[in-house]
Design goal:
CATH topology of the largest domain: Aspartate Aminotransferase, domain 2
CATH superfamily of the largest domain: Type I PLP-dependent aspartate aminotransferase-like (Major domain)
Shape: globular
Strand content: 15-25%
Largest sheet: 7 strands, mixed
Number of domains: 2
CATH class of the largest domain: Alpha Beta
Number of strands: 15
Distance between the termini: 46 Å
Strand order of the largest sheet: 2-10-9-8-5-3-4
Helix content: 40-55%
Structural class: alpha/beta
CATH architecture of the largest domain: 3-Layer(aba) Sandwich
Oligomer: single chain
Length: 375
Amino acid sequence: MAAPREPILLTPGPTPVPPPVRQVMAQPMIHHRTSEFQAILKEAGAGLKEVFKTSQDVYILTSSGTGAMEAAVVNILSPGDEVGVIQGGKFGERWVEICRAYGMQVYPLEIPWGKSLDLKKVKDWTQGVTSREFKAVFSTLCETSTGVTFDIRGIREAIGPKPLLVVDAISALGAEPFDMDGWRVDVAVSGSQKGLMLPPGLAFIAFSAKAQEAAAKSRLGKYYFDLKLAKEAWGQTDTPFTPAISLIIGLVESLKYIRSVGGVDKLIARNHAQAAGIRKSLTALGFEMYADPACASNSVIAAKVPAGVDGKDLLKRLRSQHGVIIAGGQGKETGKIIRIASMGAIGPQEIRAGFEALEKVLTEMGWKVGAEHAR
């Protein structure tokens, strides 16, 4: 009996897990309250600081990235605080939803999906005569739903030094340039299943000194995501609750891989080169890019489904007939766009196989693939 075919995963999360990472995660279980695991945890923490580009500790949570987003909100804010959210896609909307769930007064700055951020509008929104006294401003770095990146360094300049700047780097860490300390980000969150090449289940969060001061004054209720507990435990190279041991062992291996290719900047440059090839191939097949070129992400590439092609059926055929899995649109763009990742362990072989399948399926669906589509 033939072994089952391994799927070709080109989604912006989860992304493929490299074989060496899978192998170390399959090792026999160890106990987490041991010196053996402490050494693993210490190595993971040091590697995360390199990837976040921060001198601050990076806490490891056993949750999805959304758990880290919630942890950011509940640890720095108090009931009724005014906050701003840069909302240009589904994950900007998620910041709004979490903040409202905890009773914040939320003032979104709505950016049309796929469009660039106007930093002058950001400045007027936060520093203009009629602007609010924002305790924090929330943004995504890479808006996974639209394939757009936002200028975090520019946002910090636009909002001024007073508000806390909180950044969702879940689909960007290890995939897009990010410099927590250099860009004066106060809280950064991420997850395991994207640029860090792990299964879902780990989230990461780091606080600047200013955010730690805010956390000491926060009056929102919290328990599992109380980072005072995480900080206290981390001081003993420990975690307050049972961690995802195998995933953290895999994280150490993933961080070793990032170092082996020359560090996070080299990995990002490699993946960005692949993104350029993906855009070129999509254009040749007749797709139009969804994101404005000035703000287009190089970790997840979004493109409009050609007219007359059923976007949902396209994804279904790719998966069932060829084992190729790419992402569709979310929210109002469901069935209208596709999203292909270039991050992490995705390489030329997977991309080539994905596009061979995409061309076959488009042809079967009646789309005339050919040089007339190239621009």
